[in-house]
C-alpha cells in the first residue's frame, strides 16, 4: 500500500439532475486515476455534513458507490475516509470490504474510525453513546474484522459485538490495507501504531510537527519502525488562478490551500511535506473537468522531484 496522493469526493451536489450525479462521480474518479492519484475516497455518511451543506443534500451510500467505481476504474485504490464503525456490524463490514477487494481486483482500502456525526445516529437509529463507548466499540470490532480479512475465523464475545468462527470468503488478498483517520495523541495515534498501515491526519498545518512526533513516540513504544506507518493530511484545495492563499477564510486557513495548481503544490510542500507528513488526501470543491488533472500533475512534480 502506498498512498501519497489521495483524492476525496465529499459531496454529490453538482447542480444536475440525479441521472447525471453518478456519471459525475465516475468522471472525477477516472480523472484522478489518470492524473496519478494513488487512491479515491468517499465519505461514509448518509447525510451531508454541517460544514459542507444541509443534511438533505445528496449523499450516496459509500460501499455501493465504491463497488460501482471499481468497475469504472482500473488501478486507483478505493475506500472510505473513513467508515463509521457504529454504522455496520463488524463481521458485515469484513464481508463488505473483502467483497470490494474481489470486485476491484485487489484495490480496496479499509478506512475506519469511531463515528462522530450524532444527527445521523439519532435519525437513523444507530446507537451513539459517548466517545469512550465508540472507541471501545472500535477496539472490539477490530477483534473480529482483522482476523476475518486475513482468512481466519475468529470467535469473540464482547460487550458490544460477538462472533462465532466468522469467515469472509472469497478473498482476493491476505492483507487489505488498513487506514484510520484522526489525530488524537492518547488513543487514535497509538491505535494506528498498533494495527494500521496508514494514518490520515485531521489537524491544522501548525499542529503537524507535534502529530508526527506523536506518531514516532507511539511506534517506538511498541517497537515499530515509524517509517512503516504511512501518513497523509486531509485538506481542501481551492484550485483557481483567481483565488490566492490570502483569500482563505481564517477558520479554514490551517486546513485549506488555494491558488493555481503550481501554487497549491508549493503550499503543500512547505506546509505538509516539510513537516514530515508523507503526503496529502485532498478534496476540491465543485467539479470542473481538467482541474483534478492539473492539480495532480503539479503535485506529482513535487512528489517525484
Care to describe what's here?
With 305 residues, the protein is of the alpha/beta class. The protein has nine helices and twelve strands. It is globular.
The proportion of residues in beta strands is 15-25%
**Mean pLDDT metric:** 94
Q: Going across the biggest sheet, name each strand in turn.
A: 1-2-3-5-8-9-10-12
Unreliable runs, pLDDT <50, ≥5 residues? none
How would you describe the shape?
Answer: globular
Write the H/E string, N to C. EHEHEEHEHHEEEHEHEEHEH
Overall structural class, as computed from helix and strand content, comes to alpha/beta
Helix content: 25-40%
The radius of gyration over CA amounts to: 19 Å
Distance between the termini: 21 Å
Number of strands: 12
Keywords, separated by commas or semicolons:
alpha/beta; eight-stranded parallel barrel; 17% strand; globular; 305 residues; two-stranded antiparallel ribbon
